[in-house]
Design goal:
There is one protein chain. The chain is 44% helix and 17% strand. It has an eight-stranded parallel barrel, surrounded by eight helices. The radius of gyration is 16 Å and the shape is globular. It contains ten helices and eight strands. It has a single domain (4-245), classed as FMN-linked oxidoreductases (TIM Barrel, Alpha-Beta Barrel), CATH 3.20.20. It is an alpha/beta fold and 246 residues long. It has helices at 3-14, 31-43, 61-71, 104-121, 140-145, 155-167, 187-196, 210-219, 228-232, 236-245, and strands spanning 18-23, 48-51, 76-78, 92-98, 124-132, 172-176, 201-204, 223-226. It starts with a helix and ends with a helix. The structure holds SN-glycerol-1-phosphate.
Length: 246
């Protein structure tokens, strides 16, 4: 049943790096651009398509996921900014615990609200420890989650947090500086987490060029998530995919 997680774990074990193209549901309102982004993601052999955003300003979330799924031969994974961002058209949902923060709603509250819906919709839940890392400016995630990001220069705290997450049974670790961040998670922080946990590591926030992507992969990231750069220029997906898969 847990096919998306199994494929992520298999890639991690084999050292195959993966690209996840992030689609913001609001961005999805421009259907022609969305179509081009998804088509490029498929042609460039991006590994996953994530759909989600921190702010639920779109009433058409389900419609967006349905459209993405209809255009894509890649697994579609929800990266929900709230318990209402669920859709039966997705293959899986990142079941996120914001373990860098101390907001109980994001450690267990929203999970209780969302769990019955996820079961009813029949989508795969991927238990994910989410670490929000300071990316040089306040982001929507830090504002909406009302949590303080982990300091950018404290890899030890990230490593201890990820280790605790693995002891709690989480299956992937997602380190994120937030959409449009000025800087990415540091290679030092990724290395520190990699030394502590043998779980697939997802890294996102502020990744704009292939050189940076390579450095983050070499540090131990398994999946890189890119949103803003592809919103600006969907043609960038090809070069980024090539760099990550090299
Ligand atoms: C944000 O990790 C994602 O949660 C993607 O960030 O939009 O900066 O690529 P960008």
């Amino acid at each position: 049943m847990s096919t998306v997680l199994h494929s992520i774990e298999a890639a991690h074990k084999e050292g195959r790096k993966q690209l996840a193209v992030l689609i913001d549901p609001d961005f999805g309102q421009d259907e022609m651009r969305l179509e081009r982004t998804v088509q490029n993601a498929c042609m460039a052999k991006a590994d996953l398509i994530f759909v989600g955003g921190s702010l639920l300003t779109s009433a058409a979330f389900d419609r967006c996921v349905q459209l993405v799924k209809s255009l894509s031969d890649r697994p579609v994974v929800l990266f929900p900014g709230s318990p209402s961002q669920l859709s039966a058209h997705a293959d899986a949902v990142l079941f996120l615990s914001l373990i860098s923060g101390r907001n109980p709603e994001l450690l267990i509250g929203h999970h209780v609200t969302a769990a019955p819906s996820i079961k009813a919709l029949g989508i795969e839940a991927i238990p994910t420890g989410y670490l929000l890392v300071d990316g040089g400016k306040p982001t929507t995630v830090s504002y909406v989650s009302q949590t303080i990001p982990l300091p950018h220069d404290k890899p030890g705290i990230a490593a201890a947090t990820a280790l605790a997450g693995s002891y709690l049974g989480l299956r992937t670790i997602y380190m994120d500086t937030g959409s449009g961040a000025l800087r990415t998670v540091s290679p030092e922080m990724i290395r520190a987490v990699r030394e502590q946990v043998d779980l697939p590591i997802i890294v996102g926030g502020g990744i704009r060029d292939r050189g940076t992507a390579r450095v983050l992969c070499d540090a131990g990231a398994d999946i890189l998530v890119v949103g803003t750069a592809f919103e600006k220029d969907p043609e960038q997906i090809f070069a980024m995919s090539e760099a990550i898969h090299a």
